Amino acid sequence: MQREHLILEAETQLARRIALSIHVARPRPLWQQAVPGMFVVEFVRRTRFVRRSQEAYLAPRRRALAVAASSPGEQPVHDLLVEHYRRLLAATGDDFPSLVRAAYGERAEYEEFLLRLERLEAAPDPAEAAQVREQRARHARELFQD
Fold first, then answer.
1. CB 137, CB 113: distance < 8 Å
2. Is 40 exposed, middle or buried (CB count within 10 Å of its CB: 0-12, 13-18, 19+)?
């Protein structure tokens, strides 16, 4: 159960980073900067956007993680995530980065998994897809620091 918690916590942090990078990259109208107190409205909007994006990102991952401990999945993204989580659950480590390094061995193999996942998820907005790709690449670099 502890490994599942480590995995889910790391996925939650990544989801939050992705959502924040997408939100920050969106251009803001100039008038919003001129209206006093608009930062409060923007803060509420950002919080809501991050929460919704995070839940949308985590929903299939939670299902896949739950299934990874029991039976095979049915959809390609689901199957890939189940395979990924089974590898992580079979690995030994005290934190998420050590689980990933033990499961994948090299950064290139983990990046291959991320590339396969990106192809299957296919974000409809190219700007969002670029932000997701950038955050996942940063995530892989952080996990496999040389």
1. no
2. exposed
Q: What is d(CA 15, CA 5) in angstroms, rounded to the nearest whole number?
A: 15
pTM of model > 0.70: no
Tell me how many domains the chain contains: 1
> Which residue range(s) make up the domain with 9?
2-143
Q: Compute the distance between CA of residue 120 and CA of residue 88 in angstroms, rounded to an integer.
A: 20
Q: What is the CA radius of gyration of the chain?
A: 17
- Model confidence pLDDT, tens digit, residues 85-132: 999 999 999 998 999 999 999 999 999 998 888 888 776 677 788 888
Query: Which ranges of the chain does DSSP label H, i.e. alpha helix?
Result: 2-25, 30-34, 38-68, 76-90, 96-104, 107-121, 126-143
| 35: exposed, middle or buried (Cβ count in 10 Å: 0-12, 13-18, 19+) | exposed
Q: Rounded distance, CA 129 to CA 18, Å?
A: 10
